[in-house]
């Protein structure tokens, strides 16, 4: 049976057939621009703080939960995230299943000073050039949908363009790939993208296979400060949180709560 991840990738592949590829001059400009930007802001945001560092996500919908973002505009949500101390913003730009669009990256860059992680289903180089053009500071690369050879090449290309590649893993074989590809930042997804099962135990289990110096992000299914505390004890300081913030009555209060702070008054 075809799982949802395969379905998403098949749809993406079809869409990419119509994508315009950048010209050589455009590419040269892009490399020049990006390499003059100095240290990568996303990498710094994760690397310097003991945490908890929260990467707060904007996602309009998801295949498992349907519609998610209804009560706020993208800008309002980002404003609240920044005010409450998010270290970065994640945007899910996939169109068909998550109702996103690539310009989300530019919009967030315009209304906030935080680094932006673009989450999409990257299977071709052209998507990496597009992320650079939009101004993404980091880009998700899902180990399961890429061969080792491609993953390696994509990690390198991201770095040449001053984009931090966040390599997402869900099991032991993904971890092997991520390590072989020398991924600087590894995201352990607590959600199995094929079955939608979620468990933060997945971070605890897989963390053990990663050398101490790797930067680890625990992704998905984080709903309470207890979850965060449990993971901090395992040496994980970075967290990617979407649904529990987007669905909260007051996303900024929820973020403060996840950081272990007290709630602020309602607006
Ligand atoms: O909404 P959650 O359960 O807090 O999860 C956020 C994020 O980890 C999730 O959206 C995600 C993880 N990997 C992805 C890959 C593509 C799209 C989305 C994702």
TrEMBL record:
Keywords: Amino-acid biosynthesis, Aromatic amino acid biosynthesis, Decarboxylase, Lyase, Tryptophan biosynthesis. Its EC number is 4.1.1.48. InterPro entries: Aldolase_TIM, Indole-3-glycerol_P_synth, Indole-3-glycerol_P_synth_dom, RibuloseP-bd_barrel. It comes from the Bacteria. Pathway: Amino-acid biosynthesis; L-tryptophan biosynthesis; L-tryptophan from chorismate: step 4/5. It catalyses: 1-(2-carboxyphenylamino)-1-deoxy-D-ribulose 5-phosphate + H(+) = (1S,2R)-1-C-(indol-3-yl)glycerol 3-phosphate + CO2 + H2O. One of its GO terms (molecular function) is indole-3-glycerol-phosphate synthase activity. Residues 5-257 form the Indole-3-glycerol phosphate synthase domain. NCBIfam families: PRK00278.2-4. This is indole-3-glycerol-phosphate synthase. It comes from Thermatribacter velox.
